[in-house]
Amino acid sequence: MGEYEALINEHYGRNDVGERILSGLRAAGRDIDALTREDLDAWDQLHVGGARATCDVATLAKLEPGERVLDVGCGLGGPARALAAEFGCVVTGVDLTKEFCRAAEMLTARLGLSDSVAFRVGDARKIPVEDGAFDVAWMQHVSMNVDDKGSLLAEVRRALRPGGRFVFYELCGVPGAAALHFPVPWASDPSLSFVVSTDALRDVLKTEGFTEIAWRDVTAGAMEWFEAIEREAASRPSDAPPAGLHAIVGDDFPRRAANVRRNMDEQRLVAVMAVYRRGD
To answer: Which of 3, 2, 82, 85 is closest to 47 using CA atoms?
Structure first.
């Protein structure tokens, strides 16, 4: 394992993440032998906006039943399971964090979705899939941890069939803005954060052969979500065990989340949903 891979696994791959999720669900009174996707919403959607944001991106992409979707940086598999269950897609998730993939497989099996959702450990800069194997490439809150955007997008393009769609929901910098406040959920300091501006991202997408179909700034909705989770956290008993993203990201998740909101409020960071098409 190289240095970059080791850093990513150290940052995200806390041991026994799957068991922590099941323990948290038990503590919340859920029947872990009869789990629903709704039971997991607070745990397996590792991006701003949660399950609703996943649905919004899928709707923007106009996903169709039977489409083959590559989920780049799939995390714990929540979006992949949603795309299979709600939109009828066949999904392959790839993530560099081995512990995430193990937990994703376990949760998918418990929900009975293993026939339509599979996971592989792999680097987004060298995705372990065949050329042209997918109708859609999907990415949520991944590019901030990838240093080489050109390699990432070249791999996405390679994995797509001609005319295939690249759909993403990402956090981007604002051209000319001040540096970000840290820590944030994807990085404790700038050494693991590779956020680029919206202008820079659009430029590299064009360079790598993608044509823009839709581009939505959804920062306002993202900030509303942060306000909602802050209200929820304030109402939780002080002795309650960590739940949801708190248990996944760590005890300092509230501070990291607050910094994302602060970066947005100070116009250092924006949230963007977009759809692109691979050129022939």
So the answer is: 82
The token pair that represents 102 in the structure block: 């193990």
pLDDT per position as a tens digit, 189-239 = 999 999 999 999 999 999 999 999 999 999 999 999 888 877 776 676 666
What's the pLDDT score for residue 14? 67
CA angle 68, 214, 276 (to 5 degrees): 45
Q: Which amino acid is present at 237?
A: P
Structure tokens at 122: 């792999």
Q: Specify whether the CB–CB gap between 44 and 77 falls below 8 A.
A: yes
What pLDDT does 237 receive? 65
| Cis peptide bond prior to 183, omega within 30° of 0 | yes
- CB burial of 213-238 (b: ≥16 within 10 Å; e: otherwise) equals eeeeebbebbbebbeebeeeeeeeee
Q: Are 184 and 259 in contact (CB under 8 A)?
A: yes
Q: Where are the alpha helices (DSSP H) in 136-244?
A: 149-159, 198-207, 219-235
139 is written with which tokens? 């990415």
CA dihedral 259, 141, 53, 90 (to 10 degrees): -160
